[in-house]
Amino acid sequence: MRSFSGNKRNRIFFSACTFVVIFLFCGACFASEGGAHDPARITDLYYRILNFSLLVIILFVVVKKANIKEFFANRREGIKKQFERLNSQKDEAENRYRFLEKKLKDFEIEKAGILEQYKAEGKAEKERIIAEAEERATQLLAQADLTIQQEIQMAKDKLKLYVVNIATGKAQDILVNELKSTDQDILVDEFIERVGKLN
Predict the structure, then answer these.
(1) Of 7, 13, 119, 156, which shows the fewest CB atoms inside 10 Å?
(2) What distance, in Å, lies between the first and last C-alpha atoms of the chain?
(3) What's this model's pTM, rounded to 2 decimal places?
(4) What is the predicted pLDDT for the residue at 14?
């Protein structure tokens, strides 16, 4: 800190002296209240003035030695730097907020797109499963029809065989009991011919 110039120092000293004189004058007026000069009050006033003067001188010396101007300049510079740092942090926070807000909006758009995609895929999968189930049901019905037809045919074949066996047994009994050998040959031929027509 640069030292006080002589002119400035003189002004401060003159101001301090003026203040002390005014203080002494006011104190003397106060001490001589009512026109009576009380020596105890005047002595008390002079001690007070002395104390006050010493306080002013000590404060003046301390302020001069303490380099108050530099302290406040440094303090102002520190506050200015802190303010700039806080502004920088505020700008960074705002940029970060805008970035996160944009990212959140992008995420919402992407989420909506993914949901739409999953809905479309789900619908396509549902349609595929339904078509597959219908095709499988058609195959099962066709297979059941075929199985039923085969079972009916087998039942017919068994029934024919059963009828043939019964008829053969009956015919054999009749032939054995009533027919001659020539009649047997004729009946066997007729029977074979009828069986051949059935098939």
Answers:
(1) 7
(2) 135
(3) 0.35
(4) 74
